[in-house]
Amino acid sequence: MTEEKRESKRKLVDVLHLKKYYPIKRGILRRVVGQIKAVNDVSFQIRRGETLGLVGESGCGKTTIGRSILRLLAPSAGTVTFDGIDVETLQKNDNAALRRRMQIIFQDPYGSLNPRMNVSDIIGEAPLYHKLTTKDEADGYVVEIMRKVGLRPESRAKYPHEFSGGQRQRIGIARVLAMKPEFVVCDEPVSALDVSIQSQVLNLLADLREEFSLTYLFISHDLSVVKHISDRVAVLYLGKMVEIAPKEDFFSSPMHPYSQALISAIPVPDPDAGKNRIILEGDVPSPINPPEGCIFSTRCPKTMDRCKLEAPLLAGRGGHEVACFLYE
What DSSP character marks residue 206? Predict the structure, then answer.
């Protein structure tokens, strides 16, 4: 088997030239006068069994990418392939079967749960619909899943408001786990939790990945969290991928100036430790009218004349790719 075929077999998710634009409408006739380019030509792959950390500032398009992969949002252009299947071409019945294999953990552990349903129904409803269990076995199925995520089975008759934030997120994780998925989009799953609870949930996600052979797209703005759980790191800026690399390479040798600035902002627990902080000047450009050349050229401390005219392509060696003319 050639290396290319071997790599193709390992890929579970393949995103190619993904775009998501939102039209801007004005006037009485609601004419389209522009586009918000939330995701602008993004390509990447996720291998089976790995965790890809997707990082960037708020509003850069991270959540839009995750939801577009799952078809919770319809992309404006591009393709998403899951296990060799183009998800856009699926019919309704096939799409339902594929959705079982792809799940999402939402950021808000309270808003994502139905307040009128108890925990048993929240976890057990979808497995019954997809015939992963029967009505007679449903209660035992829910009890087993609750134990897997560290919840007490005797609390399955309670409602979401009776739990703490960390427990509610465990309920959300249990709901996902009950579907026996292969791929999970973790959309800022610990950002709404206390720091002491974050580590518990992160360790739970890591343990579940090993036990059930899960593949994660882990979306976060916190590089410390991404460093703890990810195998590779992808950096998004203004809807474009600027760097993607194995975790060790990324944190030891970040290449893109934006990545270097992000890593320099990670807090150091030692007050006496010196650290060179990179301060970016200016604001993030509008996604309605991004820069014509390199999207980071308006804030980059190393910008060149060429950067304002041409857009660099994502390229590199050894799995470490960067979109920057400094490394041609």
Answer: H
Q: Which of 77-91, 126-140, 235-249 has the lowest mean pLDDT?
A: 77-91
| Cα distance between residue 49 and residue 210, in whole Å | 8
The CA distances from residue 77 to 45, 55, 88, 189, in Å, are: 17, 22, 11, 27
Residue holding tokens 């509610």? Answer: 168
Which residues, in sequence order, are CB contacts of 20 under 8 Å at separation 6+?
38, 39, 61, 64, 65, 68, 73, 75, 76
DSSP-assigned letter for residue 142:
H
What are the tens digits of pLDDT across the range 93-129? 667 778 889 999 999 888 889 999 999 999 999 999 9
CA dist., res. 136 & res. 123, Å (int): 15
Per-residue pLDDT reduced to its tens digit, 236-287: 999 999 999 999 999 999 999 999 999 988 877 766 666 678 888 888 889 9
Residue at token pair 């522009």: 34
CB 304 within 8 A of CB 297: no
User: Which residue, among 38, 93, 47, has the nearest Cα to 66 in the 3D structure?
Assistant: 38
pTM given for the model: 0.91
Q: Residue 23 forms beta bridges with which residues?
A: 35
Domain ranges of the chain: 248-328
Kindly report the number of other CB atoms within 10 A of residue 221's CB atom: 16
Distances (CA, A) of 221 to 143, 192, 314: 34, 12, 21
Q: How far apart are CA 234 and CA 66, in angstroms?
A: 13
